[in-house]
Every structure is written in structure tokens, then in C-alpha cells.
Amino acid sequence: MTALERPKKTALLVAQRIVEDINARGNQVGDRLPPEKAMLEDYDVGRGTLRESLRFLELQGVITLKPGPSGGPIVQQPDSSALATSLSLLLQFQQAPFQTVIETRAALEPHMARLAAQRMSEEDVAKLFEIVELERQNLDDHAGFLSQTRRFHATVAEGSGNLIFAALFNALFDILDGAAVGIEYPPKQRRLTVDIQSEIATAISEHDADRAEELMATQMQALAAYTQKNYAKVLAAPVMWKM
């Protein structure tokens, strides 16, 4: 029997049923799931299997397990952290270098910008310009500047209207952040970044998909060239899973 043919563990099947029931009930973030006794009866499994299912869902960010008599599983909103964990583990075992992450961003983000120009709401476009202004205000604060730059790209990714793109972008950024690769951008590089992101925001606001895609591609190419020139050893190092 191959790995693809191997039956799923009971705990994983129960986890799937729990998620299906969360959706069927219309549970929202913060809702408490049924007590353990009721879940044992509903899913017809032992306590050990149920708890394994719940621990798996907690690791995936679907629930949080609140201790104590009034505790139990509480519904959460999954984020990119579980995807980042899975991707970084996969990349580590394949000995993939950090260059892989940069290349993936370069391939994805221009198309995200194109879709954002077609789909982004006026409210989110206004947010882009606010972020660009905050970047200008943080030109002398490297950490603050990087924080706003991430917000800019995340807003474009979310504005693309494609949830997979948004999740992938955040996961890729999480991998780079968690690795603490130590890439820094001098003032000149920061100013250039602000200038082109201002142009990207303008192209998106004007629904100029071709221009938005072209500008984002230009920024990604510049990022790749800068990091390759100044951080070649870092990019060649294999991705390592970090908690």
C-alpha cells in the first residue's frame, strides 16, 4: 500500500467532521464548541482520539483549547502561520534555498498587482496610499519601514481578491521573517521602494492593470538583484523551520 492509498487516521477523519460541523452550524470566531461528552457521543470515538483531533485543529489555527472547567475548544480564524510551517518544513527537507522564496514572490506578485488593479475597492486603494505615506515617515526607521512595506504588499495581495495568493504571500513573508535572515535596506533603497510603490498604488487606483503588473515586476526584479548582489550567501542557504 502506497502513502496515497493508506487510509487516514481516525483522528484526522474526526477533525474533518468537526470542521464540517463548524461550517454547518455557522460558528463564528470566539464560539465555544460542544462539550467533550457531547462530542464523544456525536463522533463515536474514544477520548484519546477526540483529543488528538482537537490538538491537530489547534495546530492548524482552527481552534484554541481553553483550559479549566468553563473552557474547551474555541473557534479561531486560521491564518498563514500553519501554511508557513508546512512550507518551511517541506523546503527544509528538500534543502531548498531562500532564493526559492524570492523567486516565488517575483512570479506571484506582479499578477497580484494586476488583479488588484481590476478588483481592489476604493477603501483598500486609500489604505495603500496611507501605507506609502507611513513608509515615507519611517524612512529613517528601518524596522518601521519594513513593517509598512510588508503591509503594502499584503494589502495588494488581499486586494487581488484571490485568497490563495493572499495566504501564500503571508506564508512566504513569515518564512523570511522567522528565519531572521538579516537583510537590510539602506536609505537609498528605501526611497526607491517608496517611489515605485507610490506608482504602483497610482496604477491600481486608475485600474491600469498592465501598468500595475509592470511596476510590480520591476520592483520584484530590483529586489532580486539587490539581494543577490548583497546577500548571495544568505539566499543560497537552505530554508530552516523556525518556531
TrEMBL record:
Organism classification: Bacteria, Bacillati, Actinomycetota, Actinomycetes, Mycobacteriales
Name of the molecule in the record: FadR/GntR family transcriptional regulator
InterPro entries: GntR_C, TF_FadR/GntR_C, Tscrpt_reg_HTH_GntR, WH-like_DNA-bd_sf, WH_DNA-bd_sf
Cross-referenced SMART domains: FCD, HTH_GNTR
Residue ranges of domain HTH gntR-type in the record: 8-78
Species name: Nocardia jiangxiensis
UniProt-listed PANTHER family: TRANSCRIPTIONAL REGULATOR, GNTR FAMILY, UXU OPERON TRANSCRIPTIONAL REGULATOR
Keywords, ordered alphabetically: DNA-binding, Transcription, Transcription regulation
PROSITE patterns, A to Z: HTH_GNTR
Pfam families xrefs: FCD, GntR
